[in-house]
Design a protein that fits this description.
The complex is a heterodimer.
Chain A: E1 3-14, E2 17-28, E3 32-36, H1 43-51, E4 58-63, E5 72-75, H2 87-97, H3 102-115, H4 131-143, E6 149-153, H5 161-174, E7 179-183, H6 187-193, E8 196-201, E9 204-209, H7 211-217, E10 222-228, H8 235-240, E11 245-251, E12 254-259, H9 262-275, E13 280-287, H10 290-298
Parallel strand pairs in A: 3-7, 3-8, 5-6, 6-7
Antiparallel strand pairs in A: 1-2, 1-4, 8-9, 10-12, 10-13, 11-12
Chain B: H1 2-16, H2 18-38, E1 47-53, H3 58-69, E2 79-83, H4 87-95, E3 101-105, H5 109-119, E4 128-130, H6 136-157, H7 178-192, H8 194-207, H9 210-216, H10 221-249, H11 258-280, H12 286-291, H13 294-302, E5 314-318, E6 321-324, H14 330-344, H15 348-377
Parallel strand pairs in B: 1-2, 1-3
Antiparallel strand pairs in B: 3-4, 5-6
Helix pairs in contact in B: 1-10, 2-7, 2-10, 7-10, 7-11, 7-14, 8-10, 8-11, 10-11, 11-14, 11-15, 14-15
The chains are: A alpha/beta, B alpha/beta.
Amino acid sequence: MRPILKANSLVKRYGDVLAVDDISFEIYRGEIFGFLGPNGAGKTTTIKIMSGLLKPDKGTVTIDSRDRGKSIGICPQHIVIWENLTCLEQILFMGKMYDMPADVVKKRGRELLESLGLYGIKDRLAKKLSGGMQRRLNIALALIHSPEIVFLDEPQAGLDPQSRVLVRDYIRSIKNVTTVVLTTHDMEEAEKLSDRICIIDKGKLLVTGTADEIIRTGGHEDLVEIDFSGDIKKELYQFLDSELISGLIISGNRISFNTKNSQSSLENILKVIREHNLKVNSLQLRKKSLEDIFINLTGRSIRE
Amino acid sequence: MKTLDCFVKTFKENLRDWKILILAIVFAPFFVYMMDMYMGDTGSTAYNLVLINNDKGKFSYELIGEWEKIKTESGKPVLKIRTITDTLVAKNMIKNKEADLFVTIPRDFSDSFSLFSFNRTGSLLPLKSYGDQTNMKYMVAASFVDYTTFSYISQKTGIEIPINIKYEYSGRGKSLNEFDLYVPALMVLSIIMMLFTAGASIVREVEKDTITRLSLSKLRSAEFMTALTFNQIIIGLICLFLTLLAAFSVGYRTSGSMPLLFLVGAITCFSVISISIITSCFIKTMFGLLTLGCFPFFILMFFSDCFLPLPKINLLRLAGNQVYVNDILPTATATRALNKILNYDSGFSDVSFEIFWILALSLIYFFIGVWLFKKKYKY
């Protein structure tokens, strides 16, 4: 596949803070590229650099485009709309700002508003729309000029389930004509939508690949989660030292760990539980998810 | 075409976000009515004279009668005379600006007048005049009193004063009162209010980050600024028109050229908008605009000869015209030009230098504004 965007050794500093630390990746034409990271990981800065809104201190971004001026669309995390214009007015205005002919922009505007469930309220002032409607309008404004690549920064934040499905389906529907770079904190959403995902943290790119590939980087391990009704007793510690498990996390009366051999591990731990008459509220054995890998890679600490 | 679309969009937004627009539009007309309220019901200026008459003879009363006869063209008395008996009270009235001039007529004024007038013996007892030199009205009131007193004495004694001063009024053939002189300043004030509406049009885009959408599009900074400028010029001219209408409604009259007035008004709007563009490049929120934005507003208001007459400091001479330091604010030159047009019926040739100067400054400020804007919001 031909890359539409190549980021090469991007570095960006804000004073002493290294927001983007030597990041390189490629985004292919027609894919949905999930861009994941905790708060403050450097996602928005990287997107700003890719979209040309911010100059990197080092590195280059190359976009393979027919018309550089029309190639990029951006839907920021916060709602960026003209509150005192109607939905239709601002859609038409933005189209004209991209030199789109009046008839084309009208047709495209109608299509977009219909697809995003806004056509029925096209003449309503944006400030009088609900939060979800404003978010959908935010997306429409990023796409009016049919950009070759669109950056959607948490487009589904604050949407109700119906709107989420609508937006998700719409994003899927445009991927063949528009390359989508998607940032989200919703791992399930990222897994469902993205063809490829990259995870960044503290300005560094940690991993890139398909969701399956990334999950496999965590090894062929299963995840066991046990909730005890009382405190975890020291008798368990002997078992927890076992070589069968890894990535142990003890949090209150809950433990979770990875295991390569789930059958043996479970047999052992159930034996300990029975011997010491421990009470278990729940026990879960499951495959690792993208979120588990994300937490493994970026840690559990809360970010500012 | 993008400029036109941007113009239409900004115009709609201005109409729909009407609070700042209303503030800008009604501010100067409101000032017109306030000024009118303080300067008399017809806008004529009256001077408050506080008098202590220690004389009991007829001449002092005749003299006071002469002072009372001084009238404006509309027939209103120029001097509002109040007679009291306590010097301390009179001096306090001067201090508190309740009176502009305090005159004391000495006890034997009429006797000395009789002796001098009929026998040519002795000398006239002097009148005492007291006032605050920093109060401009003091000098004017004193000059009215002096002139009338000399005329009365000359008439009564038959003594010809060796020189007689004939007072003629500049401008449109009648005396200008203080309100008349404030009208051009109020016109400029209405335009200075554009700092807020023009600023709001930019800052709103920055605050809501829609500027990012615009900067990613094919709209150039210069196109955006041009649309904004034309938009604001229209609002500025509406403000100017309403201010003029308010002045007319309280009795102000001018025979100055209206096309010339609106031409100077439009160029002045351009200059204020240009300054607003520069200001807005340092402000990110509407709150900032309404707080920090007051700084350039007050500079323009106070250093443009709008309300405070400032001493003139020469800057340079250009094509035979003196340019003063505060002329670097285009509104200072505009106040002068509008005064010439409205109160002195000046034509295009009389204000051509002012027009050139305001336009030149506006262009300089506009290009600085566009450059700063581009630097800040365009990659």
